[in-house]
Q: What sequence folds into this?
């Protein structure tokens, strides 16, 4: 998270669908369906898309797989928060039976807008005028991160852990259902 928010983690679940296409290409869409937990919070939603192409598929058998990837996503909470991110890079992997070990180098950039609209219908002098938008905008300057992790496949499930090191280190875990 950007400096100043003092949030060590932000857990949430995202529905994601990845579809393998010919020529070792995969497309992904992800989303958090719109939910409105309370009228004061507003609608919470997320959307994203991405793609990956395994370039080593053009060279026959290779000791490691190399793929190029890219994606973008947007996360919104009512009028309070609007976060957008873009990432692209290269991932290398090696699969041995049900275990895949991977590493990646990625370029990441993001924008974050946080704010609210002041309600001051009586014109109290210590508050901004009614309807004034108060907030801030932050840009996560484009930077590189690198990391990796394992994926374990069994009984149609995929368990993945990932750590990315960079100016904003992150860790994630994923449980997926794989139909192959």
A:
């Amino acid at each position: 998270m950007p400096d100043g928010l003092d949030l060590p983690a932000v857990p949430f679940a995202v529905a994601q669908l990845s579809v393998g296409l010919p020529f070792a290409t995969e497309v992904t869409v992800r989303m958090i369906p719109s939910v409105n937990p309370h009228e004061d919070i507003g609608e919470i939603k997320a959307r994203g898309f991405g793609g990956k192409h395994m370039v080593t598929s053009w060279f026959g058998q290779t000791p490691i797989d190399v793929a190029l990837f890219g994606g973008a996503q947007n996360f919104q909470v009512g009028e309070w928060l609007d976060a957008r991110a873009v990432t692209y890079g290269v991932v290398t992997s090696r699969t041995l039976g049900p275990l895949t070990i991977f590493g990646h180098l990625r370029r990441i950039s993001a924008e974050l807008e946080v704010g609210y609209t002041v309600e001051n219908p009586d014109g109290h002098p210590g508050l901004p005028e009614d309807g004034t938008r108060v907030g801030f905008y932050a840009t996560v300057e484009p930077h590189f991160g690198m990391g990796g992790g394992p994926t374990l496949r069994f009984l149609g499930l995929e368990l993945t852990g990932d750590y990315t090191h960079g100016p904003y280190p992150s860790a994630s875990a994923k449980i997926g259902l794989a139909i192959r």
The domain at 15-177 is CATH 2.40.160 (Porin). The chain has one domain: 15-177. The chain has a mean pLDDT of 89.
